[in-house]
């Protein structure tokens, strides 16, 4: 049996920018199951935390430990950025690219890409250049491309930030299906409604630190910090 990549354990992690600490020290364990929503005001460090967990940040202190060697852990996780990043090629090519990188034969990759395009409602846009898609379509493509390799964990940085209700609902449906099929999800959002719809766990951040971390039901029912309580009331939290 293949060893799972999770749990992921981050210990004493610090990220600095121009010698200023923007994250940490953070201790966080991402267990094998669940959908974690990262909440917090602008500049709290949500993006930096996701990037650090995914291995995109150089840590000034501390470390992140996966259950498998780092190169394997890298290959078995995905990341969806707030602004989708696409190849300047067709929708089909964007979807087959990660599969081809993993060594899948072209016809098999194309078949899988068609299946995923249908799941995200892009089956009629397969030959269209990806940069011509609308924002919502690009984000759905980015999500499909991150999920097509069946990663064990996916990090998402406010994937619905500039999308309307319909596109947001479509993305949430895809995420819930991925979660139901066993993909671990860690996602930053500003949208409390979205957090309530999706989260099984919540990480609440302020000024580069995790100030609350635990089951979503307990966080929403009785937040421990006044800042989290204010956020849930709809007040402005700075
Ligand atoms: N390239 C950079 N150079 C200097 N400081 C940065 C840089 N990127 C981020 N920061 C700082 O790091 C801190 C954390 O930023 P981060 O983007 O992680 O927050 P966030 O919670 O994701 O915010 P938002 O909700 O606005 O996306 C902020 O104080 C920000 O100003």
UniProtKB/TrEMBL annotation:
One of its GO terms (molecular function) is ATP hydrolysis activity. It comes from Yoonia tamlensis. It comes from the Bacteria. SMART domains: AAA. The keyword tRNA processing does not apply. Signal peptide: none annotated. Pfam families: ABC_tran. InterPro entries: AAA+_ATPase (IPR003593), ABC_transporter-like_ATP-bd (IPR003439), ABC_transporter-like_CS (IPR017871), P-loop_NTPase (IPR027417). Keywords: ATP-binding, Nucleotide-binding, Transport. This is Tungstate transport system ATP-binding protein. PROSITE patterns: ABC_TRANSPORTER_1, ABC_TRANSPORTER_2.
């Amino acid at each position: 049996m293949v060893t799972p990549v999770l749990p992921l354990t981050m210990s004493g992690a610090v990220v600095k920018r121009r010698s200023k600490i923007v994250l940490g020290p953070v201790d966080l364990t991402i267990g094998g199951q669940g959908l974690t929503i990262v909440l917090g005001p602008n500049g709290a460090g949500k993006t930096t935390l996701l990037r650090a967990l995914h291995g995109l940040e150089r840590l000034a202190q501390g470390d992140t430990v996966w259950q498998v060697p780092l190169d394997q852990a890298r290959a078995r996780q995905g990341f969806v950025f707030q602004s989708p990043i696409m190849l300047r090629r067709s929708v089909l090519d964007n979807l087959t690219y990660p599969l081809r990188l993993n060594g899948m034969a072209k016809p098999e990759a194309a078949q899988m890409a068609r299946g995923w395009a249908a799941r995200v409602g892009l089956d009629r846009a397969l030959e269209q250049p990806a940069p011509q898609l609308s924002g919502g379509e690009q984000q759905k493509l980015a999500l499909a491309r991150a999920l097509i390799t069946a990663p064990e964990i996916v990090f998402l940085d406010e994937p619905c930030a500039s999308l309307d209700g319909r596109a947001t609902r479509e993305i949430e449906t895809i995420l819930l299906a991925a979660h139901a099929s066993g993909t671990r999800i860690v996602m930053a959002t500003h949208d409390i409604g979205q957090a309530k719809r999706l989260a099984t766990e919540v990480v609440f951040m302020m000024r580069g630190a995790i100030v609350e971390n635990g089951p979503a039901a307990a966080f929403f029912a009785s937040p421990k910090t006044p800042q989290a309580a204010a956020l849930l009331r709809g007040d402005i939290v700075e």
